[in-house]
Design goal:
Strand content: 5-15%
CATH topology: L-fuculose-1-phosphate Aldolase
Order of helices and strands: EHEEEEHEHEHEEHHH
Shape: globular
Number of helices: 7
Structural class: alpha+beta
Strand order of the largest sheet: 1-5-4-3-2-6-9-8-7
Helix content: 25-40%
Largest sheet: 9 strands, mixed
CATH architecture: 3-Layer(aba) Sandwich
Length: 253
């Protein structure tokens, strides 16, 4: 449990409203996709204009019941400064170091998605350049091959962020993925397609037949087209919010 040092700030500061709505939207959508495991795992976002504060989902709630106003604001030292509730200890130990040391990682999404986690459980498991869905990740994934147990100290987070480096996905052995991005949209889109790519690869591997690799000459230019992926990610999030606005409008409250 994190320390609490609350301010007199209103529950939803206007300048943070859009970030709260976007993070609540991807949490709700992740619940629909089956990414949630019990009431564990955590999504965070370094708030604009104040890079010492980040949004994170509170401990003990299904993602399907979270709203924009129920998200908590924490500082990088472990204090909850806005909102009611607690934050899972591992959330702070993993996310705060990432936000502190990697300014490009505005959004950090960690969950135990079935297929991307399964790849972390295979000895030498790597996402291979065999499917178009995965080409965007070529050269963008870091692998932590030395599982250290549950993250209960910021030292573990510091170790993980050093491994992540300038990549945007960290595959943690015996644990699962951490996906980061400049925006909530880009991080979620990346998480979604990572899970899809891992699913296809593992299904293909289950046949026992060799995987067909695509040449780096073809894959590399596609992986570098980040402008295209960022634009697509924004469209993806916009579509998610349109559906939620119709079916679960309370997510934005």
């Amino acid at each position: 449990m994190l320390k609490t040092k609350r301010t007199g700030t209103a529950t939803m500061r206007e300048e943070f409203r859009s970030a709260r709505i976007d993070l609540a939207a991807v949490l709700r959508w992740s619940a629909r996709l089956g990414y949630q495991q019990g009431v564990c795992n955590h999504y965070s976002f370094l708030l604009p204009g104040d890079e010492g504060l980040f949004l994170v989902n509170p401990e003990g709630y299904f993602w399907s019941e979270l709203t924009a106003s129920s998200l908590l604001v924490c500082d990088l030292d472990g204090n909850i400064v806005e909102g009611e509730g607690t934050v899972e200890r591992t959330a702070f130990c993993l996310h705060a170091p990432i936000h502190r040391h990697n300014q490009a990682a505005k959004a950090a999404l960690h969950c135990h998605t079935t297929y991307s986690t399964a790849l972390c459980l295979i000895e030498g498991g790597r996402l291979e350049p065999v499917n178009m869905v995965a080409f965007q990740f070529y050269g963008k994934i870091a692998y932590d091959d030395h599982h250290q147990g549950e993250a209960q100290s910021v030292n573990e987070g510091d170790r993980e962020v050093a491994i992540l480096g300038d990549k945007n996905i960290l595959m943690m052995r015996n644990h699962g993925p951490m996906v980061v991005g400049k925006t909530i949209a880009s991080a979620f889109d990346r998480l979604y397609y990572l899970e899809e790519a891992c699913r296809r690869q593992i299904v293909a591997m289950s046949t026992g037949r060799p995987l067909q690799h695509v040449s780096p000459r073809i894959v590399s230019p596609l992986a570098e087209d980040q402008i295209l992926y960022e634009a697509y990610a924004e469209k993806h999030l916009a579509a998610i919010k349109r559906v939620l606005d119709r079916e679960e409008p309370e997510y934005a409250s």
